[in-house]
């Protein structure tokens, strides 16, 4: 299992930005086991450009335990033929593909609306860069939209909830996409939901509490997305919210949730220790949270959530499959399935 996960690529798109008729694509990607020798960018399945791997000192410093992490950069300018579509960056060595990252792109970025104020962006991405905020949202949207297509498609989605919407990182892209008629967003951050109400009048937003219930009737949503929310909740809080999300899902409705699994644990500050704990405590305490790992304490919502509520949480695939299936049907579990980092869990209300 460990050797398999080391072969998965990790990285980010820092920029996916239209500039007139061109599209600028900038970011980084590496595998833990060895560096890439070349990058290729594909636009809607067609090769658009190739280039050497660039040195990025900042990435190298961020991952000091991976000697080649700094040799991971790419920068391309391409000319898409469509107004929107799919962009992929492929890493290779010895002429063979060994990893890829995928995102959507839009040439009409104005339809995404306003960029949030810097403090709101920092809470959800840890970055004050608007280009990164847009690129990150686009990429996560692409992964979640692809999951919807794999499990019935958008034709059966009439109403959607972005649970933990923050300042609209994903909501903006679902609204611009236009395949969901009615979109709601909730978050414990009242400043973020108030900003979303002003920025996206075509959707509905509401602050909610730290614990259930939600202010919606039973069987109200055909789709709920929960990106980077369960990744910060203790086991009992997770279970409470799983039951509540089941309540508001329509029969056959989908919950797309992400978790920090074993792959994410590899990039913790003490990966060997955390990995060993996850493996050893599989049947005893399979969720490792902030009160155990000081490095897992997350202060992004300091002053919004009470101390101890919001933390970095890591959990095994086996635990998630076993315990979450007690509440909802697990249709798919994909390691590093969203953003090449968080694991994707696709669940359905029976």
Please tell me about this protein's structure:
This protein is an alpha+beta fold and 350 residues long. It folds into two domains: 2-107, Immunoglobulins (Immunoglobulin-like); 111-348, Vaccinia Virus protein VP39 (Rossmann fold), CATH 3.40.50. It has helices spanning 2-6, 57-62, 118-125, 130-150, 171-177, 190-199, 235-248, 262-265, 271-280, 317-324, and strands at 9-19, 22-31, 38-43, 46-52, 54-55, 71-78, 84-93, 96-106, 159-163, 182-187, 204-207, 221-226, 249-259, 287-288, 314-315, 329-338, 342-348. The strands form four sheets. Strands 11-10-9-12-13-17-16 form a seven-stranded mixed beta sheet, with helices on both faces. The protein has a four-stranded antiparallel beta sheet with strand order 1-2-6-5. Strands 4-3-7-8 form a four-stranded antiparallel beta sheet. The longest helix is centred in the middle third of the chain and has 21 residues, at 130-150. It is globular. The protein starts with a helix and ends with a strand. Mean pLDDT is 92; it is low at 290-297.
How would you briefly describe this protein structure?
With 350 residues, this protein is α+β, with helices and mostly antiparallel strands. Helix content is 27%, strand content 34%.
Question: What's the topology here?
Answer:
Blueprint: H1 2-6, E1 9-19, E2 22-31, E3 38-43, E4 46-52, E5 54-55, H2 57-62, E6 71-78, E7 84-93, E8 96-106, H3 118-125, H4 130-150, E9 159-163, H5 171-177, E10 182-187, H6 190-199, E11 204-207, E12 221-226, H7 235-248, E13 249-259, H8 262-265, H9 271-280, E14 287-288, E15 314-315, H10 317-324, E16 329-338, E17 342-348
Parallel strand pairs: 9-10, 9-12, 10-11, 12-13
Antiparallel strand pairs: 1-2, 2-6, 3-4, 3-7, 5-6, 7-8, 13-17, 14-15, 16-17
